[in-house]
Structures are given as C-alpha cells and as structure tokens.
Design a protein that fits this description.
By secondary structure, this protein is α/β, with parallel strands linked by helices. It contains 10 helices and 6 strands; from the N terminus they run αααααββαβαβαβαβα. The strands form 2 sheets. Strands 4-3-5-6 form a 4-stranded parallel beta sheet. A two-stranded antiparallel ribbon has the order 1-2. It binds zinc ion.
Length: 227
C-alpha cells in the first residue's frame, strides 16, 4: 500500500487568489484537448508548433470525418503492426509478404536502414532477393552500437546457410558508410560474398552538374563496357 502523499495533496489545494489567476489563464489559453492534440501532432517529423496547431484546427474545423478515420487507423496500426521475424521490417503477421514469397531469390540478402529504403529498392523492380531492415544505423557518437541495432539478428539471418551474397544498401552518409563497413567485415569474415551499392552519376545526369565527390566515386567504380 502506498501512503497518500499529504504534502502533494496540500500543494494541489489552491488559495482563492490562485484559483482566480488559474481561471483567468484558462480563458486566455486553448482548451485542454486542443492543446493535447496540437502537442501530439508534433511527434510527426518536421512539424513545429505552428504547423501542429494549423493541422489540429483544420481537422476540427474542416475534416472531422478525416480526423476520426486518422484516429481509427492510428489505433489499428499500433495494435496490428510489428516486426517481421525474418527481415525485421513492419508486418502484420509473423512473416512479411516478401519473406513469404516463393518468387524471391533466398540466396540474396539486401541490408537497408529503414522500411522506406526497402520500398525504394522494391520500386526499382531491379532486385529479386530478400531483405534485412536494420531499423537504424551505427552511430557511436549517439551511443548506437552493434548491440543497439541488434546486429546479432542480422548475423543469424545471413548465416542461415541459404544466403550467398549480402548487398549492403545503407545510406551514403558517414553513419551509413560506417555501418556498411562494419557489417561487411562481419559477414565477409564468415565466408559470405558482400557487395555494396555502387555510387554513380544519376540516370539522365549531365557530368557538368554532378558533384565532384559523386563523379570521383563513379570513376573509381567504373566497369568494363559490355559488348
Ligand atoms: Zn520479412
């Protein structure tokens, strides 16, 4: 049994002066629920206080049906969506549709940082293997090491005896490169073929407008012209 905290209870009792000032403040500030909604919307990326307030007011004033739908969809998604047992991406069942598919090449495993990266690669229709989603990247400065992004799970997945080649498709940021390097060494040491996405000149890109880092990389990673 927790003893009631009498001091805390006493603190909550307001003097007549305080009650008066609180009442005055309430009339000047937004209602509790509106403030709560505005604050909640700020969890979205790139949404500051003003944008959050605009969204909240828009939903209340112009789109209450949309707001109800949003609320139901959020609730349902939070209940149903979890991580795929094999590839760690988001899914509703134990395994995601890609891991369940018999049309994918199980000898190829592509490592990406996020489900969004997986969608981008799928969108190219140029890859027929399976994936592993890190749900992050190594970032020692932020205290994110191999343990934090559960690289042991990737290791277990890659060493299933079927995977032959691991394609590292982490971002070309410092952290993405560091992650690719670490994962590459870890898997190559265990006998797997490890490849990294090539960097290059964008399709339709003119050399004049390509940054020198990308151009230098494209030169280094030049390949034999077939035919
Ligand atoms: Zn999966």
């Amino acid at each position: 049994m927790v003893k009631p905290d009498l001091d805390a209870a006493r603190k909550l009792t307001l003097t007549p002066m305080e009650t008066k000032s609180v009442t005055r403040n309430v009339t000047l500030t937004p209602l509790g629920s509106l403030e709560e909604l505005t604050q909640a919307l700020r969890c979205l990326p790139g949404v500051g206080p003003k944008a959050a307030q605009r969204m909240a007011l828009h939903l209340l004033q112009h789109d209450r049906d949309g707001a109800q739908r949003l609320s139901r969809a959020l609730e349902a998604a939070m209940q149903a969506i979890r991580h795929c047992e094999r590839c760690n991406t988001f899914t509703e069942g134990e395994l995601c549709a890609l891991c369940r598919s018999s049309k994918r090449d199980p000898a190829l495993l592509c490592v990406v940082e996020t489900p969004a990266d997986l969608f981008m690669i799928e969108h190219t229709q140029a890859y027929g293997g399976l994936y592993f989603v890190l749900m992050g990247r190594l970032s020692p400065l932020d205290g994110i090491g191999p343990k934090e992004i559960r690289l042991d799970r990737l290791l277990k997945r890659a060493l299933d005896g079927v995977v032959r080649e691991v394609v590292l498709a982490t971002n070309f940021t410092n952290e993405g490169e560091a992650t690719a390097h670490y994962v590459g060494e870890m898997l190559a040491a265990r006998g797997l073929t490890v490849t990294r996405l090539a960097r290059g000149v964008p399709v339709g890109g003119e050399l004049e407008y390509v940054d020198s880092g990308t151009l230098a990389q494209a030169l280094r990673e030049r390949r034999a012209l077939s035919g």
